[in-house]
Amino acid sequence: MNTPQPLKDKLCLVTGGSRGIGLAIARMLLSEGARVAICGKSEKHLAAALEELELLSPGKVVGKVADVKDYEQVAELFGFVDQALGGLDILVNNAGVGWFKNISELSVDEWATTIGTNLTGVFYCSKQALPRFGTRGGGYIVNISSLAGKNAFAGASAYNASKFGLNGFSEAVMLDARYENVRVSTVAPGSVATEFGGLTSGGDWKVQPEDIADIVHMLLCLPARTMASYIEVRPAKPPRK
Ligand SMILES: NC(=O)c1ccc[n+]([C@@H]2O[C@H](COP(=O)([O-])OP(=O)(O)OC[C@H]3O[C@@H](n4cnc5c(N)ncnc54)[C@H](OP(=O)(O)O)[C@@H]3O)[C@@H](O)[C@H]2O)c1
Q1: What angle do CA 145, 210, 62 make, to 5 degrees?
Q2: Is 144 in the pocket of ligand 1 (CB under 6 A)?
Q3: 31 Cβ closer than 6 Å to some ligand 1 atom
Q4: Where are the domains of the chain?
Q5: CA separation, residue 41 to residues 81, 157, 176, 184, 189 (Å)
Q6: CA 97 – ligand 1 centroid, Å
Q7: Which atom of ligand 1 is nearest to the CA of 212?
Q8: 221-225 average pLDDT score
Q9: pTM over 0.90
Q10: Cα of 32 to ligand 1 centre, how many Å?
């Protein structure tokens, strides 16, 4: 008997697919037979990711430098996806940034970049994706939020604001789009072993990027009648405080 491959030939875009969690999600999608576009801000990180992913799945991956907080660049990115993949079935809004410092030290630019990337960028990409899903009879948006979308902590004012906002946005879009056969899920991780926010990726106790990719895989493979709209993912045994 053939194993079902629900993601085979699906057309996917992963923002921030050049590193960390986004790269792990791109690997997972390719290994399931999907065709994948990724974007990132840095040409160097994008090129390195594309080289690795091309080896994994020759001819199935493309990428473009695009800053999700710039609407013109987002529109160009989706035009590129149209050309390269010929449509879109799955959007993973993963690109994100964070600065962790007291409000008195947080600059106006850091605030704008955090909200622009983590919240407005998700709106821009969703706005571009939804009409494209319409032409394919439906689609799926996965938004990578954070436990910081529900729990405020000192030194995270901009990051908290962006992810609290993202959770509300994501839930509202889920309710808006469900009757157009579009499912929307929010994944809210705790500590994941990446270099996010300038952190070192170490720590065996942390969730691995591949674990988040496994959760995304599970979401995307649920029957069309079902969606898990919000999932928290946390380290099972973080160091005791
Ligand atoms: N790591 C954690 O502990 C953790 C926990 C909870 C939630 N998250 C969330 O998970 C998501 C991914 O984080 P990560 O840990 O994988 O971080 P990461 O390793 O720093 O990777 C971030 C990715 O986003 C891209 N990116 C950043 N700003 C962008 C922009 N304006 N336009 C396009 N791409 C942009 C980066 O591209 P460049 O390489 O070009 O910069 C990179 O590919 C974020 O939304 C983050 O908030 C992470």
Answers
A1: 85
A2: yes
A3: no
A4: 11-233
A5: 16, 23, 30, 25, 22
A6: 5
A7: 10
A8: 97
A9: yes
A10: 23
